Every structure is written in C-alpha cells, then in structure tokens.
Please model this.
Amino acid sequence: MKKIDKKNPFKTPEGYFDEFHEKLVERLSDDKVVIPDKDGFKMPEKYLEGLHKNISQKLDKKDVKVISLKPFRKYYYVAASIAAVAFVVLGLNWNPSEKFGFEDLANTEIETYFEDNELGLNTYEIAEVLPIDELEIIDILDTQFKEEKVLDYLNENLDDFEELNLEEYE
Amino acid sequence: MIAEEDLVHDLKQAGTRSQAFEVLVNNYKQRLYWHIRRIVLNHDDTDDVLQNTFIKVYKNIEGFKGDSKLYSWMYRIATNEALTHLKNKSKRMGISDGELQSRLVENLKADVYFEGDAIQLKLQEAIATLPEKQKLVFNMKYFEELKYEEVSEILGTSVGALKASYHLAVKKIEAFLKED
Model:
C-alpha cells in the first residue's frame, strides 16, 4: 500500500488560536444571566418605629354595630331585581317567532348550540356517529400544550411532585 | 431574644399579652414587612396587610397549638393576607390577576419607595409572570434565604415540589432577563 502523507491538510485563519480565549470569555459574559441580588424596594424612614402604636390603636377600637334606619330597603331592591329579570325574560319570549326551517340556521349557529348545550348523548351514542379511527387528538384539543405549561400545572396542583421522578428537579 | 415558647405563653395570658405583643411586633415586623412587600409590591398595601397580619395573630393566638414554629404560622397568615389582598384588589378593579400584576410592576417606575435600576425592574417584571407558587418560593428562597424545610412548613408543600418550583422559576426568570 502506498504510504499516505500524514501531514494535516486543514488550515486555520491567521491568529485564530491567539484570540480564541478572549473570544470565549466574551461569549461566556454575554450568555451569563445574573439575577440581581437586591430587589430595589425601600420603606419610608421610621415607618417601623410607629408600627406597634398603629396596630395597638386599631386593636383598641371597639366594634360599633350599625343599625340600619330603613331595614326593609334591601328587600325592596331584591324584589325590584327579581321583577326586572322576570320582565326581561318574558319580554324576550313575547314576540311570536316566524316559522323557520333547519336550513335557515347558519353552520356557526349550529356549532355554537352544540358547544353551549348538553347533548344528552352517552359515549356509546357519540361513538356510533363519530369515526373514532379517523380522529386525532388535535381534532379535540383546541390548543397544543407546551411542556412548560404542563410542568407549571403539575407543579401548582400536585402535592407530591417527587412521585413524578423528574430527575432534573432533584 | 425571648424563647418562642415563653413568648407564646405570655401572649395567651391576659396579664402579659400586651407587653408580649409589643415584643412580637418588634421581633417580626421587619421580616414580615419584606415578605409581604415582595408580594404586593407597594408600601401602602404592605402597611395594610402587615397590620392586618399582626391583628389576626393577636386575635387567634389562643388557637395556635405549637404544631409549627410561631414564625411559620405568622408567615402563613401574612402570605394568605397578602394574596387575599391582591385578589380583592383585582376584583374591585374588574381586572384579571395577571393584569393587576402588570399594573403593579408598571407603577414601580414612579414609586418613590422603589430605588431599583433597570435590571431590578426587569426582575420584578419577570417575577410577575410566574405562577403564584413559583413566585412565592422564588422570593422566599432567593431574597429571604429561607431553607426549603422552612418554606415547606410555611406553604404546606413538600420539599421536592418546592425544589421543582424554584428550579422552574429561576429558569423562567433567566430566560426573561435574557430577552431584549
């Protein structure tokens, strides 16, 4: 076998290694995010000195019961509210509706109806009309869940997060 | 500093309650103030919540059984008072909790009791985007430097869950601070 020249055929730009460390340090400084160790809040001068006195004054105040001079007024308001609601409901149903057919409904109105109302169908009845084998999960879910949101939900709602065995958080 | 058991004992006795309460207020006012302040952000709301917290402690000290440390119990009351204050505020204003958080942070720019620079303001913006638990855990670990076991006693959450909360919070804050 012919002896193959072992000389490195690759080249680097001039001064590349001389500047390499400097570039690396600069890059690390740019990437590093430092969370400030102070929050910037301050309180009024001598605020804490007067705190106990303020609290004591509040504790010393006796509760004064307010007796309404016109106690039945609230019942008038309740009765008036009920009457107003009844009037609105009756008024909406008062007008005799013109006869219309199924074809008069827009598709959006039909969709809104199904979204807002209980169908009263059990899962077997739904399965009979829906082609399950052609359904994808994205057909049912309106939004795609981001991993971050899932983790947030689990973190806020699970009592024992450790059971998930997420090694990253140990 | 008076031992906690003695302080609780004196708070429960009519004859020593007043003096013991003054000791309690003086010992814990600073810590509780900053804990509440980091939740509600402005001084006036903090003042209201802090006073309500101590009043609640005073009125309910008989019910304190000593199952947890006194300061854990007080921190829990302070946290709940602060969160309730925010919820009531957002309801009164007719806006969502998230919108209220944004407005409170925005108000810091003109707040005479906020002397933070641009990055510290951005940090508050970042914290405001966190879910409630992550926000609390971040503040208690990063600024108040409480141990996980202490935070666990205050929030009633396992140490593992707290570590996860803190990890998630830090990641999000770092990502937020990196944004232009």
Q: What stands out?
A: Chain B has two domains: 1-115, 116-180.
